[in-house]
TrEMBL record:
This is PPM-type phosphatase domain-containing protein. It comes from the Bacteria. Signal peptide: none annotated. Residues 7-199 form the PPM-type phosphatase domain. InterPro entries: PPM-type-like_dom_sf (IPR036457), PPM-type_phosphatase-like_dom (IPR001932), Ptase_RsbX (IPR039248). It comes from Anaerobacillus arseniciselenatis.
Amino acid sequence: MIESKLYNYVEIASFQEAKNNNAWCGDAFFCIETDEYFICAISDGLGSGQLAHNASQLVISYIRENHHEPLVFLMDRCNELLLNKRGVVLSIVKVDFINKEIIYSNTGNINCIFYTTNGILTRTIPKRGFLCGRKSSFTTQCIPYDKGMRFVLFTDGIELPTSLHDVIAKEVPVSRVIDFVKERATLKEDDITFLVGDILD
């Protein structure tokens, strides 16, 4: 399923597919914008099917209700919620409009890449592991942003060839990026979520 949305300060486009057209997608994501920030979270339940779906939806539902909290708090609380449940990997990106910075926290193998308007590519540093209720510590990474910066987040159902980065960095609108990724990226036999966003101000 392909979706796009224009907020006041951010424009996004995304697509999501369940493994083998399963009724249950183990990936979930959520985006919201306020006057002060934009938040995007992507969760990927371990494995696939209904249990993976339920775990991903659990953490995304919590973030939806509590997105005003600091990112480390959200990561901690989502981890606690998954005790004795299927684990997930999770990435959260917050675009802070007041301080003009991007704050990022994650655990696991969800990819997050930023593209500046002058062609500089920045990959975030992933934290190994996954959320499952075991005690863990979480941190944030912060990077400044300028108007026009682009970001992508995607689960491990996609492999991006190096040749696609130039297209992702320059192609407009963001919906066209989705088209190129679907045509040219390697789509694995897995749940797939890919999201691209532009910071408009």
